[in-house]
Amino acid sequence: MAKVTIDGIEVEVPNGSSVLQACEAAGKEIPRFCYHERLSVAGNCRMCLVEVEKAPKPVASCAYPVMDGMKVFTDTPVVRNARRGVMEFLLINHPLDCPICDQGGECDLQDQAVSYGKDGSRYHEQKRSVKDKYVGPLIKTVMNRCIHCTRCIRFAAEVAGVPEMGATGRGENMEVGTYVEKALSSELSGNLIDLCPVGALTSRPYAFVSRPWELSKTDSVDVLDATGAAIRVDVRGGEVLRMLPRVNDDVNEEWLGDRSRFSFDGLKRKRLDRPWVRRDGQLKPASWAEAFGAIVQNVRGQRIGAVAGDTMDAESLFALKAMLNAMGSTNLDARQDGAKLDASRPDYYLFNSSIAGIEEADAILIIGSNPRVEAPVINARIRKRWVAGGMRVGVIGEAVDLTYPVTHLGAGPADFAAGAEFLKGAAKPMVILGRGALARADGAAVLAAAWELAKGAEALREDWHGFNLLHQFGGQVAALDLGFVPGEGGLDMEAMLAGGVDALWLLGADGFDVSRIKPGTFVIYQGHHGEAAAARADVILPGAAYTEKDGTYVNTEGRVQRGRMAVPPPGEAREDWRIIRAASQFLGVTLPFDTLEALRAEMAAAHPVFARLDQAPLPGCTDDAGPEAAGAPSHAPFGLPIRNYWQVDPITRASSTMAECAATYLRPALAAE
């Protein structure tokens, strides 16, 4: 540790720290544009100049290492004049259109010009003009504003692993953009908007829609993939206008996938905003009482089953399970993708190493998964670990570009022996099994074989749990924690669709082919978008999307998180647990809770995991007995469950922004095939 004096304040910082980090440790604010704590140091904006004792001139604090006994001064006449000079240079060519700029209110350049600049400029020459670049349907460019901080270039190359941005030209002719004009091919491209300090890269869907001070901001959690990224929902007038990531170092750091960031316009399209009942073969509008009356007439005790969707909150799942159990039914299933999951033990279906634990691994074997599209932020964490060095990645499944070098070991379960050999000798090996690898007839055998592979690689120890299952959506783990799977004598989804039940309750279940439902089955659809499942239903109960209710979700590592209501549901739609509570009263099995707090207390009492908020499971494996499976897996190669990253659920399929992305990115790929 080095002792450094900052403006008379002595602080102790690790050796190798920069002067800027030492200043922050002392509570001193240092202006910067190019420096970002999660990117490499460029040292090219020079805004972070400070004075160091005995140094002949001000130094760039972001790139200058500390030394024991160093004395630093952050607010002297020399420092102030140096920063004013830097700001004057930065504003030579920057357009002075702050009142009409769409970055107004969130512009680092504007804030720092006021705080550290001076009130005039000595330059009167014409400003240079730079052509705007096309970088895809999500990011709008205004390149006249660019100050060449190179944050976007470093993020694309270092974090996203897609080095498609760079600088061409020198001096006054330097321009930042893609070398060849094209859409950025990263699922994390929206983070460039957050990183850009001047608004040269802004959100195309949000441009000129609102000013930041007009928005109400609600902290929540993303459910459109299983990472459980911390997000902020920005709302004006009852409409979601923007999704932004929040910092959570244990989960998403400060990144967010493009699907989660930009699909919010799907929340206001194709919505179900009132109950519907099928009469004379046609769905017709109805009152809530009429909808519940139709359910009472057609539901008979044990001959009812329920299938839950992938983004449902735990409260709704718990309420529906409790209602069906009270009616004598154990016909429950939340595995609408058909994955052969074993819910008897949490570590059979969790990402046990934790997301942050990826940074401890020295060998990773990915089986039947493409984390780049299933969980882009987790894939970025794997890349971060690879960039740090000393880690290798192997893949069994389809060969895809994961943005980091991998060793392709085979296509299916027949190559598990090669995977075991690949992990041999690793101190902390990880196996990442994709949920899609279990959505096949031999899925249970694949799960058991993958567990045994991890066990043979010594990945299941008291100090390290290297078996990880990567889910795809934010509601999938909570359903398993709650036991929303067939109970004793209960039917799974296949049996229910084949006619094993007279009535089928679909709770946000839109991820399967509804033509598989046997004709004559009475279908109740409870959800928020009018898709094929709603069209097949006999009764439609309009529910709330994840931004429209307070809900509990569990991410792929088993971390229990809370989402919060940012806007009310549209029209007559209601929170899903309230709908189920009302239905239980009509069906004569009234549930024993009337408030969300009472429901959560019941849920935590029955399933203690829901009382532990924002905690990853304890590390280590104390029992390496694997899941049971009859027979061995087949030699059929693994497929990938998500081909279209942009449109995977009702919200994203209703989004015009996601439709434009799909048209931009998928059609060239299909044409190439």
Automatic annotation (TrEMBL):
Cofactor: [4Fe-4S] cluster; [2Fe-2S] cluster
EC number assigned by the record: 7.1.1.-
Domain 2Fe-2S ferredoxin-type, chain residue ranges per copy: 2-78
Highest taxon above the source species: Bacteria
The record's free-text note on cofactor binding: Binds 1 [2Fe-2S] cluster per subunit.
Task performed by this protein: NDH-1 shuttles electrons from NADH, via FMN and iron-sulfur (Fe-S) centers, to quinones in the respiratory chain. Couples the redox reaction to proton translocation (for every two electrons transferred, four hydrogen ions are translocated across the cytoplasmic membrane), and thus conserves the redox energy in a proton gradient.
Protein name: NADH-quinone oxidoreductase
Organism: Sediminicoccus rosea
